[in-house]
Amino acid sequence: MIVYFNGKYVSLEEAKISPYDRGFHYADGVYEALRSYNGKLFRVDSHMRRLKYSLTELNIKLDDINQFESVSLQLAEINKILPHDFSVYIQVTRGVQFPRKHNYENNPTHTVFVSVSKLKDNSEHLEKGVKIILEEDIRWTRCDIKSISLLPSVMAKTKAVNLDAYEAVFHRDDLITEGSHTNFFAVKKGVVYTAPLSNFILEGITREVIIELCIKNKIRIEEEYIKVSDIKNYDEFFITGTTTEITPVIQIDDWVVGNGSPGKLTRVLQKYFQEHITSFN
Question: What's the whole-model pTM score?
Fold first, then answer.
C-alpha cells in the first residue's frame, strides 16, 4: 500500500513517526474521514471546512488544506482502487517535540498522513437495519473537534461489537448526543429529530445532508434532544455517517423497535439520499 506521509508518496512500511510525536504522546492532533462515489469525493468542501475548524480549535496551523483532495485521488489511482469506491483517512498531529513536555510550542513541522482503502459492502446493514446499545457519554466536552483522542469511543464501540451490536450511542443526563462514529436520528409522527449542534456532538457531514433533504422535501425536522427516558415513544430510528450513510436502527439494547424492520420514513430518506448521490455524480 502507498500512503501520503509528510509531503511524499511512500510505502506504508516507510511511513514512520518519531516516538516524540505529540500525537503519539498526547493524542495532540485531528483527523478527517471522507469517501467517494463513482470516483468523486463526496462533500469534500464540507469535510475540508470541518478539518480546518478542528485544526484552528487546537491551534495547529496547516497552510494547504485543499491539497488533500488531489492527494486522495492520486492515492486511489496509485493503489489501483479505482473504479471502486474508497474511503480516505487524513490525520494531522502537532508534530515532534523533544524533550517531552505537556505545553506545546508552535511547530511548523507537523506530521501529516493520508491513506485510502476500498469501501466494504454495507448493503445488508442498509437493507435490514442494525442493533445499537446506549452508553453513558464519558467523553470530553469538545466533541465538536474531530480529535484523535478516541479512547472512550473505542471502548464503547468494542462493547457494542461484543454484544453483537453495530454501534454504541451516547447519552448525557438522559439526553442522547451521538454514536461513537455516527449521528443519531429518531422519528415520531412523521417528524425527524436529532441532537442540536453543540460542543457535545460532531457536525456530521451526512447529518448535514439529511437536514437539507428534509427541508427540500418538506419533511419536518427538529434539532432537539431525544431523551433516553422517552425513547420508546418514538416510531423509528436511524444512524448516519460517511460510510454508514443512512442505516436503520431496529433494536436498542434489548428492545426491538416496532416490528423489527426499518421504518417507513427511514426508507424514504434512504431513497432521497441515493437520488442525491446520483445527482451529485
Answer: 0.95
